[in-house]
Design a protein that fits this description.
Layout (H helix, E strand, L loop, with lengths): L2 H15 L4 H34 L5 E6 L6 H8 L6 E4 L2 E8 L2 E10 L20 E5 L11 E11 L2 E15 L11 E5 H11 L4 H4 L8 E4 L6 H10 L2 E4 L1 H5 L1 H37 L2 H9 L4 H41 L12 H27 L3 H5 L3
Parallel strand pairs: 4-8, 5-7
Antiparallel strand pairs: 1-9, 1-10, 2-9, 3-4, 3-6, 5-8, 6-7
Helix pairs in contact: 1-10, 2-8, 2-10, 2-11, 8-11, 10-11
């Protein structure tokens, strides 16, 4: 027999089974849909962890605060002495305006010691900012370019609850993509620590020397260059009685969630595929038993066992192909809808990207055909082995 003959007969027999084919197709489709949803979530979470835990430079930053008081210079000195800590400095920021001609934008200047600025931007490895220079956040909508002179406007206290705006000459030393820093606003730009402290001193009506006489800080920023040492540094800091907050701490639960999601989803998928296999085996068995007379005639006119196996295999393949096409199409639509819904909730610090990879498509096809052929193997083998004499005896 030619391949076309097998296909023609297989399609006719599939149509003859009619509604009996619907159950296994639906069950297989739902099982593969769940498989694609679970694997897409797992892939998305893994990719996010790789980006935020492996590639993201924000992991180098640790926020430290005191449980019952503000931090002093003595506290900063203790923190700097901890092994693997590159620097510890007070969290210092000032909301300022940046002006040039008619161009006006606002930004939050974060004060950073010169020897630590390289950790706040990927583009500059070694930087000594001019006293009044700034690294402007490249995400701020502005036509200001590197090297351009600007004026920074800030508030100066003149008396209680009253202030005036003053300006200081500055320049855009560079435009940079700042790292994500926990609890900092998105409009962060970088400036020299002493410069930002000067602006804050003026806001309080003090000179810089007066401002630094008895300073107290709500929070300190630690820099740990090697992320592998982050957990140990956090333990050492907490052993001294301080509280810590850092990106890795928030990310530690993500792999656990991914594993739980994969485990629960895997169990559901397994149950559905077992049901699908059982359903396929039952339907194929019933279909073939009702066709024993036809099978006997085919054996009588010269059909061999291998011919019957190929014919029945074509019928199972049709069920598998339909299930595969439906599951991929529905999975694609479902993943896009779920992606939009989950991201709209805004409960995570990263964006879920749910898509069907080539691996998922191939895996879906493999699972479908594997389940279908394993489930139908026994009924097909049994039916193809029937002899004409057995049928005549009424077996």
């Amino acid at each position: 027999m030619k391949v076309s003959d097998y296909l023609t007969l297989g399609i006719k027999n599939f149509k003859r089974s009619g509604k009996k084919n619907i159950a296994p197709i639906i069950i297989i489709t739902v099982g593969i849909l769940l498989f694609n949803i679970v694997s897409s979530f797992f892939t998305s979470i893994t990719a996010s962890v790789n980006e935020s835990v492996v590639d993201n430079s924000s992991l180098k930053f640790m926020h430290v605060s005191s449980i019952d008081s503000s931090l002093k210079n003595e506290d900063l000195a203790k923190l700097k002495e901890i092994e693997h800590v590159h620097n510890a400095f007070p969290r210092t920021e000032s909301f300022v305006g940046i002006e040039k001609n008619k161009e006006k934008v606002t930004t939050t200047l974060v004060g950073v010691p010169n020897d630590s600025i390289k950790y706040f931007t990927k583009s500059l490895k070694e930087t000594n900012l001019p006293d009044n220079g700034i690294l402007l956040n490249s995400n701020i909508d502005s036509t200001l370019q590197q090297g351009e002179p600007i004026k920074i406007s800030y508030t100066v206290k003149v008396k209680e609850n009253e202030g005036i705006r003053k300006e200081v000459e500055s320049e855009v030393y560079d435009k940079v993509e700042p790292p994500y820093i926990i609890s900092f606003p998105e409009d962060v730009s970088i400036a020299n620590l002493e410069f930002v402290q000067t602006l804050n001193a003026a806001f309080l009506g003090l000179t810089l020397d007066e401002y630094l006489q008895n300073p107290s800080y709500e929070e300190a920023i630690l820099i740990v260059p090697d992320v592998n040492n982050l957990s140990q540094v956090a333990k050492d800091v907490e052993d001294l009685g301080y509280m810590t907050e850092y990106s890795l701490k928030a990310s530690k639960s993500i792999p656990v969630i991914a594993k739980i999601l994969a485990s629960v989803g895997g169990i559901l998928i397994l149950v559905l595929l077992v049901f699908a296999g059982t359903s396929i085996a039952s339907i194929i068995n019933q279909s073939l038993r009702s066709r024993y007379g036809e099978i006997g005639i085919m054996r009588a006119i010269g059909y061999k066992r291998k011919h019957l196996i190929r014919l029945f295999t074509v019928e199972v393949s049709i069920i598998s192909i339909i299930s595969f096409c439906l599951s991929i199409m529905i999975s694609f639509i479902a993943l896009k809808l779920i992606e939009q819904y989950v991201n709209s909730l805004g409960f995570a610090d990263y964006t879920f990207i749910l898509s069907l990879s080539a691996y998922q498509v191939l895996a879906s096809m493999g699972v479908i055909f594997l389940v279908s052929f394993i489930a139908s193997a026994y009924p097909i083998r049994k039916a193809s082995s029937i002899q004409v004499s057995e049928i005549l005896k009424g077996t």
